[in-house]
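Render this sequence as a predicted structure.
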Amino acid sequence: MDYKPNVDAVTWFVKDVFPSIVRRVPEARLLLVGHDSRHRLRRLADGHRIVATGSVADVAPLVAEAAVSVAPIRVGSGTRIKILEALALGVPVVSTTLGAEGLDLAPGREILLADAPEDFAAEVVRLLKDRATRDAMGDAGRTAVVSVYDWDRIEQRLGDDVRAWLAGRR
C-alpha cells in the first residue's frame, strides 16, 4: 500500500465513497490490507469501522471473508492482480473503469464498474444488500478468472502465439 496509486485509491474511497455506503449500510466495515510503512492507511483507520491490517502473510483468508472487494484505482497502470485474486475466491468486485482496464471481464456480469463516488457507493451497497446478486457475481467472476487467467490456459495461449509467430517468420 505504499504505491502512490493505491494510496490515492484508498484515500479517495475512504473520504469520498465510504461515508455514502455507511449511510445506507450502517454495519459496513472496511478492511485496508497491505504494507503501510508510511502509516498513511493507519491515519485513515478508526479501528472500528475502518481497520488497517498492515502486512499480512496471506491476503486470501481476509479477502475470502469479505462480502465485496473494491478496486477504486484512479491513476496508474499495470495488472490488477487484486481484482483477479478476489474474483478467484468468488468475491464480487466493484472497480473503477481504470482499475479494471485490460482485464477480460464482462461489466455488469463478472465485475461492476463505477467512476463517480456516488455511483461507486451505489454498486457496493447493491452488492451488500442483495445476496443473490452478490453470489451470482462472485460465481461469474470466479468462472471468468478460471477460464481466462488459469496458468495452464495462459501457458497454452502463449505457446500458441509463439508457434504462430515462428511459423510466420519461416
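Summary. The chain has a mean pLDDT of 92. Helices lie at 4-24, 40-44, 60-65, 81-88, 117-129, 131-149, 151-169.
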